Amino acid sequence: MHGSPCDVLQVNAPNIKELLPELFQENLLRGRGLFCQAIMKAQLASPTFSPQVLALEMLILLLENPSDDSVEMAVDFCKEVGAYLQDVAPAGLHSVFERFRAILHEGAIDKRCQYMIEGLFAVRKVCCMCHGCQAVTKCTL
Predict the structure, then answer these.
(1) What are the φ/ψ torsions at residue 103 (nearest 5 degrees)?
(2) What is the enclosing helix (H) or strand (E) of 33?
(3) Angle 51-64/90-106 helices, nearest 10 degrees?
(4) Can you tell me whether residue 139 is helix, strand or coil?
(5) Coil, strand, or helix at residue 132?
(6) Please, is 114 exposed, middle or buried when counting C-beta atoms within 10 Å of its C-beta (0-12, 13-18, 19+)?
(7) DSSP code per residue over 17-46
(8) What span, in angstroms and rounded, lies between the C-alpha atoms of 35 and 118?
(9) pLDDT above 60 (res 117)
(10) pLDDT attached to residue 135
(11) Nearest CA among 75, 79, 73 for reference residue 116
(12) Residue 128 class from Cβ within 10 Å (0-12 exposed, 13-18 middle, 19+ buried)?
């Protein structure tokens, strides 16, 4: 990376597309969502920041050129922020799930990742059936 680990605090919507590939190269996101949570918490402190934009940008970037690792990270991240996104940006979350569906149909990822995506769809379906799609915050995606 160009600077210190403190540069993570500089992440915002306009520069996320440039910083995320660098972070992936540093292999910092392998912590199963912990690093992603740290980014979200740091950015929530910014009064002009829109956390749903960052979350959606991260998911889109992870799924743009899917690999087994990027899909696994996207599924884990979606589990962390999915309920929040369902409440504040349901159309954006729907687009992410459509991308997951397309990745399943492409069949280019390994079976384990395919099962992870299918599990995410199953949780989403149960949450919508039990609580209604307007109240998914009661359920973890």
Answers:
(1) -65, -40
(2) none
(3) 10
(4) coil
(5) coil
(6) middle
(7) HHHHHHHHHTTGGGGTTHHHHHHHHHHHT-
(8) 24
(9) yes
(10) 41
(11) 75
(12) middle
What confidence tens digit (pLDDT) does each residue in 7-33 have? 555 666 677 667 666 666 665 545 555
The residue with tokens 């597309």 is: 17
Rounded distance between C-alpha atoms, residue 31 and residue 57, angstroms: 19
The pTM (predicted TM-score) of the whole model is 0.65
Residues 6+ apart with CB under 8 A from 16: 54, 57, 58, 61
Measured distance CA(21)–CA(27) in Å, rounded: 10
Residue length, the chain?
141
- Extract the tokens encoding 66: 């899917």
Side-chain-side CA neighbours of residue 115 (13 Å) = 3
Q: What are phi and psi of 107, to 5 degrees?
A: 65, 20
Both tokens assigned to 42: 């740091």
Compute how many other C-beta atoms are within 10 angstroms of the C-beta atom of residue 95: 15
